[in-house]
Amino acid sequence: MPKITNNEEKNPIQCSICNEYRFFEIRQTQHSGKNRGISLNKPFFYCKKCAKCESLLSDKTIEEQIAKVQNDKTAYLKSALEERKFEPYNKFGFKYDPLDYYYIPGLIRPWNEGFLTPVFFSIELLFYYNSNPDYWISRSSFSSLQIYDKNGQYFFDRGFGINRNGNLFAWLGDLYEFFEDGTQNQHLKRFLLDNINSDHDIIPSGISSRLAASTV
């Protein structure tokens, strides 16, 4: 899971005003071009505690994107990053948002592009394995949990995070490696069933309360 730093080394996701961990959001915004209206997805960091909002696209970048639209009709503009598919990790069809990889600090690995892209799952995946007598769940820390088989061996040995929205997340590259050898194909359908659209949050549940306690 991504490193969560203390106050001596501020994480870029932390708010500069209140030190709370911000949320990464993608908002569809409207812009005016010459004789046309343009819609585009704009990435933000948003602090729910103090309501500070920081755009991750400069005005110059937005203007450059709008200038690429040639017709005079309303257009929805997608950036090249939004449409990226990370191969070979895309093999099993998991849903993910490539913007998470490019904009959430600490995930980019130039030598292994896309590996640390978060893939999100409903908590139902956890409930499924927790209610199955052949598996059991252990929360190894405030930030992650592990699934074990009935013999006490790791099942999905890379672990999951649980974010502030109550959703599970794992890395795209880890999921690829887990299913690549074909021995876990019977579980792939279950994982895909509970795979949900990105909510863009990789801050583990509990981190906000720990941060608050450290600043008292």
Provide key terms for this protein.
216 residues; alpha+beta; six-stranded antiparallel β-sheet; four-stranded mixed β-sheet; 6 helices; 22% helix; globular; disordered C terminus
Helix content range: 10-25%
User: What does the overall shape look like?
Assistant: globular
Distance between the termini: 26 Å
Note the main sheet: 6 strands, antiparallel
Question: Average pLDDT across residues?
Answer: 82
Strand order of the largest sheet: 6-7-8-9-5-10
Low-confidence stretches: 1-8, 208-216
Secondary structure tally, helices = 6
- Structural class label: alpha+beta
Q: How large a portion of the residues is in β-strands, by DSSP E?
A: 25-35%
Q: Secondary-structure element sequence?
A: EEEHEHEHEEEEHHEH
Please state the CA-atom Rg, rounded to the nearest Å: 20 Å
Instruction: Tell me the quaternary state.
Output: single chain
Number of strands: 10
Outline the structure in words.
This protein has about 220 residues and is α+β, with helices and mostly antiparallel strands. It has a domain at about 80-195. Helix content is about 20%, strand content about 25%. The chain has helices at about 60-65, 100-105, 125-130, 170-180, 185-195, 205-215; strands at about 25-35, 35-45, 55, 75, 120, 135-140, 145-150, 155-160, 170, 195. The strands form 2 sheets. A 6-stranded antiparallel sheet has the order 6-7-8-9-5-10. Strands 1, 2, 3 and 4 form a 4-stranded mixed sheet that branches. The longest helix is centred in the N-terminal third of the chain and has 9 residues, at about 60-65. The relative contact order is 0.16.
